[in-house]
Automatic annotation (TrEMBL):
Pathway: Secondary metabolite metabolism; methylglyoxal degradation; (R)-lactate from methylglyoxal: step 1/2. Binds 1 zinc ion per subunit. In the homodimer, two zinc ions are bound between subunits. PANTHER family: LACTOYLGLUTATHIONE LYASE, LACTOYLGLUTATHIONE LYASE GLX1. Its EC number is 4.4.1.5. It catalyses: (R)-S-lactoylglutathione = methylglyoxal + glutathione. PROSITE patterns: GLYOXALASE_I_1, GLYOXALASE_I_2, VOC. GO terms for molecular function: lactoylglutathione lyase activity; metal ion binding. This is Lactoylglutathione lyase. The lineage of its organism: Eukaryota, Viridiplantae, Streptophyta, Embryophyta, Tracheophyta. It comes from Vitis vinifera (Grape). Keywords: Lyase, Metal-binding, Zinc. Belongs to the glyoxalase I family. Residues 156-269, 275-394 form the VOC domain.
């Protein structure tokens, strides 16, 4: 059941038909003559970020990659930086880079050349280059055929990511009040954050929450756009709605607030394979959002209603979109981050999303490719209302889980 508001509203729930965090890295060239585009008028070096403009990228590649190869230095920092630089570029810029910079190595779909053997960090870059070479040579896939891909893809909700002010406090609350289990926890001091994964079952099969704590930040703004999570549990938290039946329905529900102010809908029901069953977000145009999630992600609308009474017996996680009449914009705050969804092909999935954004709005925020250091392939995008989704390669996700065990 959704929140009860004084204004009328319409809701829709969508689900799948079938079954991370990037950091900004700065690097200063050790030899200014190799990086003319990275120097000021006096020849002084200045820091270059992975989010720098696209114009100097060819100079960066020529200035760092080529000298590194020729001298056979084992400079992992340089290579990781180049890989991350390259991934930030739009495909058309990547193709230009291929033609202008990598033609001397005759890189094509049939020959990976010496680059792929040089260093493990450079292999993902080679694979990326080959992918776009093949994409350029291959015939254009018709839009209708491309839009069928999400429906055939193997997808499921992996986790929802949001920020908290005290990680240990939240872990204690979720485990004691909601009955969740701490699945894994990690601290990344060099990037000044920690995170923890909690849920009602293993990450390989269940939808879980990923809590992020940023060093020194103890409070976040949840905003007006985020609604609530829904779980099947019996007790816990500050009750913001007394337990009782849904108006016009038979489900017994209550609402609870966690220590950071996130609202959880508590649903009384029998055993279910997916207790963490819902994420509710508010949108400004319900029909547009339904089309976006159906076309871009291959989801299926399971219920649309003007009353909060849809049945609570679904055995999977759903994304609930709520439209409040007359409200077209909401504040996002800085607490809720994103939902992660699995895919068998981040590249093809990104193509579909890019196609749909041209029609309905939204944008790709991270081009498909491996995360430096992890090599887990992802892509991310914003929907027309600015809600973020990350698509994660299925095989890479499982490898990452097993690596941390």
């Amino acid at each position: 059941m959704q929140f009860r508001y004084p204004e009328p509203k319409t809701t829709a729930c969508v689900k799948f038909l079938s079954h991370r965090h990037a950091s900004t890295v700065g690097l200063v060239s050790r030899d200014p003559k190799h990086l003319d585009d990275n120097c000021d008028g006096k020849g002084a070096q200045r820091e270059s970020s992975i989010y720098s403009t696209r114009a100097p990228l060819q100079g960066i590649i020529l200035g760092l990659l080529v000298p590194t190869l020729s001298s056979e230095e084992d400079d992992e920092t340089v290579l990781e930086y180049l890989l991350h630089c390259f991934q930030q570029q739009a495909p058309r810029y990547q193709l230009k880079l291929l033609r202008k910079v990598f033609d001397p190595w005759k890189l094509d779909s049939g020959k990976k050349c010496c680059l792929s053997l040089f260093h493990p960090v450079i292999r993902p870059l080679c694979d990326w280059l080959i992918h776009w070479n093949m994409a350029e040579a291959a015939p254009v896939v018709p839009s209708d055929e491309l839009l069928e891909w999400p429906k055939k893809d193997k997808r499921r909700f992996l986790h929802v990511v949001y920020r908290v002010g005290d990680l240990d406090r939240t872990i204690k609350f979720y485990t004691e009040c909601f009955g969740m289990k701490l699945l894994r926890k990690r601290d990344i001091p060099e990037e000044k954050y920690s995170n923890a994964f909690l849920g009602f079952g293993p990450e390989e099969t269940n939808f879980v929450v990923e809590l992020t704590y940023n060093y020194g930040v103890d409070k976040y703004d949840i905003g007006t756009g985020f609604g609530h999570f829904a779980i099947a549990t019996q007790d816990g938290g500050i009750i913001t709605r007394e337990p009782g039946p849904v108006k016009g329905g038979k489900s017994v529900i209550a609402f609870a607030k966690d220590p950071d102010g996130y609202i959880f809908e508590l649903i009384q029901r029998g055993p279910t394979p997916e207790p963490l069953c819902q994420v509710m977000l508010r949108v400004g145009d319900l029909e547009r959002s339904i089309k976006f999630y159906e076309k871009a992600l291959g989801m299926k609308m399971v219920k649309k209603t003007d009353r909060p009474e849809y049945k609570r017996n679904m055995k999977t996680t759903v994304l609930e979109l709520t439209y409040n009449y007359g409200v077209t914009e909401y504040t996002k705050g800085n607490a809720y981050a994103q939902v992660a969804i699995s895919t068998d092909d981040v590249y093809k999935s990104a193509e579909v999303v890019n196609l749909v954004t041209k029609e309905l709005g939204g944008k790709i925020t991270r081009q498909p490719g491996p995360i430096p250091g992890l090599n887990t392939k992802i892509t991310s995008f914003l929907d027309p209302d600015g809600w973020k989704t990350v698509l994660v390669d299925n095989e890479d996700f499982l490898k990452e889980l097993h690596k941390e065990e």
